[in-house]
Design a protein that fits this description.
7-stranded mixed beta sheet; alpha/beta; Protein-Tyrosine Phosphatase, Chain A; UDP-N-acetylmuramoyl-L-alanine:D-glutamate ligase; 8-stranded mixed beta sheet
């Protein structure tokens, strides 16, 4: 019988479990046990936090690849192709490999129902074992303590900046959310605390768990130009515009904590080619400066505002914005209201989970916003209004940025320049 395609598998997985999110380790952990995945030979670094997880993984991945260390990276969600979620040595894996992983999982799970994300996490672990990687870098999907990747005991945990997000799952305040994020740490193992202003519950929780906190501005220091580690040695770097130094520094600290000897020359080369798709990604179209960013909560929107302030001034900025309904869209709009001249709010982004653009327009008013039936209509209107000048900001959910990438690619014959970070 002919094997199912990756697309067919993904379609089936979307229907397999009754809910998209089902926090807990028992089901996923049991399948991992049957696959002998729970005690990997690879060094495992697990990353949790509200913002910056993907960037932190990307920096570690780039440094390991530059030094020729075999590594695997599991991140989510993807922007264009599912394969983006599972990479080996910096390269997305082929459909056939993921299908083989799905087949292996399906063969042993029996009557255990897995979510779409859990299937992907198990597939990544299976692929990394089959490829014999020395490091596996795992990005938490939601929270930390009960997220599927936490079935693996991390050799090093990383907790990036923490803010309000997914409150219905993780808690109503930052202090409670921080406890959930720290659940990836392990007794006697190091945990990088990337934000020197982290909630007090971070250090309290790590102490209670018996994990060792490696704190920013205490055990390592960083700036836009340099990184220093435990007063033993320093590196100079040129952090790319758009990559937050806090995340880059946490990535370096995590690798050094594992005992990796980082070559300074190779270290200095990494920022020059590191690309983070959809993270403050810059391109242009017909003279219009375009910025795409997956800022999907208030803290990320505030960081995006800081980034926009570093860019050349323009006469007019139009934003295409769509986000999920569980996000604090009001505070996101407030964070950028002084930077955006007009807001285009398309319907149909993110399916049933998408925020109603009419609600967004209600916050902004008709004079500053307009609702569109489709993303393409909002893009056509924006480019027409800008008329070859100014800036177009496409931001919000991963679905929004993915739509923007696809739509601009379709219009690629008129585009100018290459995407940059």
């Amino acid at each position: 019988m002919e094997a199912k395609s990756l697309d067919a598998w993904l379609s089936d997985l979307e229907q397999l479990h009754p809910s998209a999110i089902d926090l807990g380790l028992d089901r996923c952990g049991e399948v991992a046990r049957r696959l002998a995945l729970l005690t990997p030979s690879a060094t495992t670094i697990t990353v949790a936090g509200t913002n910056g997880k993907g960037s932190t993984v990307a920096v570690m991945e780039a440094l390991l690849c530059e030094q020729g260390v075999p590594c695997g990276a599991f991140t989510s969600p993807h922007l264009i192709d599912y394969n983006e979620r599972i990479r080996v040595n910096g390269v997305v894996v082929e459909d056939e490999i993921i299908v083989r992983a799905f087949e292996a999982i399906d063969a042993v799970r029996g009557d255990i129902s897995l979510t779409y994300f859990e299937f992907g996490a198990l597939a990544a672990l299976w692929v990394f074992r089959e490829c014999g990687v020395a490091y596996q870098l795992l990005e938490v999907g939601l929270g930390g303590r009960l997220d599927a990747v936490n079935i693996i005991d991390a050799d090093v945990a990383v907790v990036t900046a923490i803010g309000l997000d997914h409150q219905e799952w993780l808690g109503s305040d930052i202090e409670t959310i921080a406890v959930e994020k720290c659940g990836i740490a392990r007794f006697g193992k190091p945990c990088i605390v990337a934000d020197e202003c982290a909630p007090a519950t971070v250090l309290e929780t790590l102490d209670r768990m018996g994990a060792y906190a490696v704190k920013a501005s205490t055990e390592y220091r960083f700036s836009d130009q340099s990184f220093s580690w435990r007063d033993s040695h320093s590196f100079f770097w040129d952090v790319p515009n758009g990559l937050i130094p806090l995340n880059a520094a946490a990535a370096v600290a995590a690798l050094l904590t594992t005992g990796l000897d980082i070559d300074e020359q190779k270290f200095s080369r990494v920022p020059s080619y590191l690309t983070l798709r959809g993270r403050r990604e810059q391109t242009s179209w017909g003279g219009v400066s375009v910025v795409l960013d997956v800022a999907h909560n208030p803290d990320a929107a505030s960081q995006l505002r800081v980034f926009l302030g570093t860019l050349p001034k323009v006469e007019k900025t139009i934003a295409i914005f769509a986000v999920m309904s569980d996000k604090d869209c009001h505070d996101m709009l407030l964070a950028l209201e002084d930077d955006i001249d007009f807001w285009c709010l398309p319907h149909g982004i993110g399916g049933e989970r998408g925020q109603d653009p009419e609600k967004l327009s209600g916050f902004l008013g008709d004079r500053r916003s307009r609702v569109f039936e489709t993303f393409d209509e909002s893009l056509d209107y924006s480019l027409d209004q800008l008329n070859g000048r100014g800036r177009l900001l496409i931001f919000g959910s991963f679905f929004t940025v993915a739509k923007g990438m696809a739509a601009l690619k379709e219009r690629g014959h008129s585009a100018e320049g290459e995407a940059d970070v």
